[in-house]
C-alpha cells in the first residue's frame, strides 16, 4: 500500500482528503498538494446507512472538481458513529466481571446528580444492567500484591450465564489493576478459551488510570460501541478499496490526533469525540495562520453548538468530557456543548413559554424550509423568516430553501403566542443566542479568561449564521470566519498529527529520591509511545511531551503539570516542585510553598507530525466591496434593506459595513449592524465591532 501511495504522489495529482460526518451533513475538504487547490463539499447524511454518503461525496468531488481517488495519498476521517451509538443506546449487550462485593461500582459512580438543583433530576441508567454484572472472588492489594487469585470456577459460571443472557462482549475490571494487570489478563485469557465468540476488554488495557469507577466506565464505553464502530470501519475500508484508494484510512481522535483504522476497531473509545476535536484542531491551524493568539471557537451544526478555547494558538485539553450522559476519562480536546443547533426545534410548552431545543430535526426530515418533510419550526426556519437566510442554494447545491414552508412552520408558533411571525422568529434566535451565551460564560469562568480579549471563530454550517450576534452579546470585539467555515472539521483531519496518549499511575512523594522511579516510568512510556507511532506507519522523528498528575498530600484530586524530561534525568526535584506550585497558582490563585507534594501519575503524549500543508495567500488591495443586490431583513426591531455579498467576489482587502448578508457554498454569514468587515490575505472574513 505504501508503494501505491508513492506512485500516486509521483504520477500527477496528490490529493489529501479530510472527511467529517455530522448529524446532518458529511463534510469534505480536499487539497491537491501539487497545486495548492482546495475543494470542499457537503452531502446530506444517511442515518440508515452510515458511510454510504462518503462514496456519494467522493463521486461528486470527482465530477465537480476533477478529484481522482486513485491519487489520494492521505485520507482522514471523523465520524459520529460511536457517540451516536451511546446517545441512542444502541450498543452491544455487555457483561461486567468485577471483584465480588464491588458489583455496584458503576451504579454508585461518584454519587453526584447531573443537576443538583433540579427536583426532577435523575441519574442515567448504566450501560450494563445489574443482572449482567458478575462478582468474581479475587483480590489484590493497592501495592499490586495478590491476596486472592481469581476463582476460575466462578469465571466459568459467569461466562455461561452471560452467554445465556445474550452477552456480545465482556468487560473485566478489577480493583488496583492500574498497579498490576495480571488478574484481569488471566480472566481475559480464560474467557477467550471458554467463549471465543465473545469480545473481551480489560480496564487496564483501555486506560490504566487510578479510581475504579473512571477506569471501569471508560472500558465499558469502549466495549459498548465496539461492534458498531468495528463493523463501520471494516465497511469503510472495503468501500475505499473498491474505489482503488491507495491511502490507508486514518481516524481523528478525541485528543485531536490521528490513528489508523486497525487501531480504531480496538480503541473505539479514543474516537468518540473525533468530530468535535478535529473542528478545534482545524480552527487552531487557521488561528495560527492568521496570527490569532486567543480564540473562542463556535461550531454550530444541525443538533448542537460546541465551544472551545484556543490559547497561544493551541487547543486546551482535559478529561471528564461527557459522552451523552457518561463521563469519558481519557485525554480529550476540551469542548463544551449545548443542544442548540440549526435544526433545533422551537416549541411552546404547557405554560406558554417559547423554548428552543434540545430536540433536533436532524437531516431527516430536517428544518421545514428544507422541503424534506419537516413541519416544526427550527432555528434555521427562524433565520429564513427574518430574511438572513434563503437567498442562494445551500450546501453546495444540495438544498434549496422554501421560504413559504419556513413561514408556515414559524407561523404556527406565532399563532400560539399571539405575536407576529417575524417577532416570533426573532424570539427563537434570541433564545438560541442566550442559551449559548450562558454556556460560554460558564466556560470562560472555569478557564478564568476575559472573553473581551478573544476573537470568536464561528464555523460549521450554522456558526456564521449566529456567531456575530453571540460575539456582540459577549462584548467581544472581533469575529473571524475562514474562507470555508462549513468544512473546518474536515480541514482539522487534514492538518492533524498522529497522537497517542499513555499513562502510568504511581503513588510517590515528590523528592530527589523518588525521581529515578518517575524517570523510569517516563522512559517506559517513551518506548511505548515510539512503538505506537511506528505501528501507525510513522518513521520520522517523534515529539514526546511529558506531564504528571500531582497534588498536595491530603487533596482528593490532582492537577496535570507539564514537565521537562531533563528535570527527571538531572534529579532536579526543585524544578518539578516549582512547576507544580505555578500550575496550582494559575488554576486556583494560591499555592502552599511548604506543602508536601504527591505525584500520582506520569503521562506521555507521543506526537508524529503530519504533512506540512499551506494554502495560497494573496496580497490585500483596499477596495470597497460591491454588493450583488439588496434585500429586506428583519433585524430585531424593524425590516431594513441590507446588502448581500457573494463570498466568491470578495478579495483580500475588500471592506464593507453591516448589517449585511454574505452567501457562499457551505454557509451564510449574517452580519449585524455596527460592524466593519474586511477580508484578509488568507481570505478570512474579519469583523470588528464599533466601540
UniProtKB/TrEMBL annotation:
<feature type="domain" description="Hydantoinase/oxoprolinase N-terminal">
    <location>
        <begin position="16"/>
        <end position="192"/>
    </location>
</feature>
<dbReference type="InterPro" id="IPR008040">
    <property type="entry name" value="Hydant_A_N"/>
</dbReference>
<feature type="domain" description="Hydantoinase A/oxoprolinase">
    <location>
        <begin position="215"/>
        <end position="499"/>
    </location>
</feature>
<dbReference type="InterPro" id="IPR045079">
    <property type="entry name" value="Oxoprolinase-like"/>
</dbReference>
<dbReference type="InterPro" id="IPR002821">
    <property type="entry name" value="Hydantoinase_A"/>
</dbReference>
<feature type="domain" description="Acetophenone carboxylase-like C-terminal">
    <location>
        <begin position="517"/>
        <end position="682"/>
    </location>
</feature>
<dbReference type="Pfam" id="PF05378">
    <property type="entry name" value="Hydant_A_N"/>
</dbReference>
<dbReference type="InterPro" id="IPR049517">
    <property type="entry name" value="ACX-like_C"/>
</dbReference>
<protein>
    <submittedName>
        <fullName>Hydantoinase/oxoprolinase family protein</fullName>
    </submittedName>
</protein>
<dbReference type="Pfam" id="PF01968">
    <property type="entry name" value="Hydantoinase_A"/>
</dbReference>
<dbReference type="Pfam" id="PF19278">
    <property type="entry name" value="Hydant_A_C"/>
</dbReference>
Amino acid at each position: 500500500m505504501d508503494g501505491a501511495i508513492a506512485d500516486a504522489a509521483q504520477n500527477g495529482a496528490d490529493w489529501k482528503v479530510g472527511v467529517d460526518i455530522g448529524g446532518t451533513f458529511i463534510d469534505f475538504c480536499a487539497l491537491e498538494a501539487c497545486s495548492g487547490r482546495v475543494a470542499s463539499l457537503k452531502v446530506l447524511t444517511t442515518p440508515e446507512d452510515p458511510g454510504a454518503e462518503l462514496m456519494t461525496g467522493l463521486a461528486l468531488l470527482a465530477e465537480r472538481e476533477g478529484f481522482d481517488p486513485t491519487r489520494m495519498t492521505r485520507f482522514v476521517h471523523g465520524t459520529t458513529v460511536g457517540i451516536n451509538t451511546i446517545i441512542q443506546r444502541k450498543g452491544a449487550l455487555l457483561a461486567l466481571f468485577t471483584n465480588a462485593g464491588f458489583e455496584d461500582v458503576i451504579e454508585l459512580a461518584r454519587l453526584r446528580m447531573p443537576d443538583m438543583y433540579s427536583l426532577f433530576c435523575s441519574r442515567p441508567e448504566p450501560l450494563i444492567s445489574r443482572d449482567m454484572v458478575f462478582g468474581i472472588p479475587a483480590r489484590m492489594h493497592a501495592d499490586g500484591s495478590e491476596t486472592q487469585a481469581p476463582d476460575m470456577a466462578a469465571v466459568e459460571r459467569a461466562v455461561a450465564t452471560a452467554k445465556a443472557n445474550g452477552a456480545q462482549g465482556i468487560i473485566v475490571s478489577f480493583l488496583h489493576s492500574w498497579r498490576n494487570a495480571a488478574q484481569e489478563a488471566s480472566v481475559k485469557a480464560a474467557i477467550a478459551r471458554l467463549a471465543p465468540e465473545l469480545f473481551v476488554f480489560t480496564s487496564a488495557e483501555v486506560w490504566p488510570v487510578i479510581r475504579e469507577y473512571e477506569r471501569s466506565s471508560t472500558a465499558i464505553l469502549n466495549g459498548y460501541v465496539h461492534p458498531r464502530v468495528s463493523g463501520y470501519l471494516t465497511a469503510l475500508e472495503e468501500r475505499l478499496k473498491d474505489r482503488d484508494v491507495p491511502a490507508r484510512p486514518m481516524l481523528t481522535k478525541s485528543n485531536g490526533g490521528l490513528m489508523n483504522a486497525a487501531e480504531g476497531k480496538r480503541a473505539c473509545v479514543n474516537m468518540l469525540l473525533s468530530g468535535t476535536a478535529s473542528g478545534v484542531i482545524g480552527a487552531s491551524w487557521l488561528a495560527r495562520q492568521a496570527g490569532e493568539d486567543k480564540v473562542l471557537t463556535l461550531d454550530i451544526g444541525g443538533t448542537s453548538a460546541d465551544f472551545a478555547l484556543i490559547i497561544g494558538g493551541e487547543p486546551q485539553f482535559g478529561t471528564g468530557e461527557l459522552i451523552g450522559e457518561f463521563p469519558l476519562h481519557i485525554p480529550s480536546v476540551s469542548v463544551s456543548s449545548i443542544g442548540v443547533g440549526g435544526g433545533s426545534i422551537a416549541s411552546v410548552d404547557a405554560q406558554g413559554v417559547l423554548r428552543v431545543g434540545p430536540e433536533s430535526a436532524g437531516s431527516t426530515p430536517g428544518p421545514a424550509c428544507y422541503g424534506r418533510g419537516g413541519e416544526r419550526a427550527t432555528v434555521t426556519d427562524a433565520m429564513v423568516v427574518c430574511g438572513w437566510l434563503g437567498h442562494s442554494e445551500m450546501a453546495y447545491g444540495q438544498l434549496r430553501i422554501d421560504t413559504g414552508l419556513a413561514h408556515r412552520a414559524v407561523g404556527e408558533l406565532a399563532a400560539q403566542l399571539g405575536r407576529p411571525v417575524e417577532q416570533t422568529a426573532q424570539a427563537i434566535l434570541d433564545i438560541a443566542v442566550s442559551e449559548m451565551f450562558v454556556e460560554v460564560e460558564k466556560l470562560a469562568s472555569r478557564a478564568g479568561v476575559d472573553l473581551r480579549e478573544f476573537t470568536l471563530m464561528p464555523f460549521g454550517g450554522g456558526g456564521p449564521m449566529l456567531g456575530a450576534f453571540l460575539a456582540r452579546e459577549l462584548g467581544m470585539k472581533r469575529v473571524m470566519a475562514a474562507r470555508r467555515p462549513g468544512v473546518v472539521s474536515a480541514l482539522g483531519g487534514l492538518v492533524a498529527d498522529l497522537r497517542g496518549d499513555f499513562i502510568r499511575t504511581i503513588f510517590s512523594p515528590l523528592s530527589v529520591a523518588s525521581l529515578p522511579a518517575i524517570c523510569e516510568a517516563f522512559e517506559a512510556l517513551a518506548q511505548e509511545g515510539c512503538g505506537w507511532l511506528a505501528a501507525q506507519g510513522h518513521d520520522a522523528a517523534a515529539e514526546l511531551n511529558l506531564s504528571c498528575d500531582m497534588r498536595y498530600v491530603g487533596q482528593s484530586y490532582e492537577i496535570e503539570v507539564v514537565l521537562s524530561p531533563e528535570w527527571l534525568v538531572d534529579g532536579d526535584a526543585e524544578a518539578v516542585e516549582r512547576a507544580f506550585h505555578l500550575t496550582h497558582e494559575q488554576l486556583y490563585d494560591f499555592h502552599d510553598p511548604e506543602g508536601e507534594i504527591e505525584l500520582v501519575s506520569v503521562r506521555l503524549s507521543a506526537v508524529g507530525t503530519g504533512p506540512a500543508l499551506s494554502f495560497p495567500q494573496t496580497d490585500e488591495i483596499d477596495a470597497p466591496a460591491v454588493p450583488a443586490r439588496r434585500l429586506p431583513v428583519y433585524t430585531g426591531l424593524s425590516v431594513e434593506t441590507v446588502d448581500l455579498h457573494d463570498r466568491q467576489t470578495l478579495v483580500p482587502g475588500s471592506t464593507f459595513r453591516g448589517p449585511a448578508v454574505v452567501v457562499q457554498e457551505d454557509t451564510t454569514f449574517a452580519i449585524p449592524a455596527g460592524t466593519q468587515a474586511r477580508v484578509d490575505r488568507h481570505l478570512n472574513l474579519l469583523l470588528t465591532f464599533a466601540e
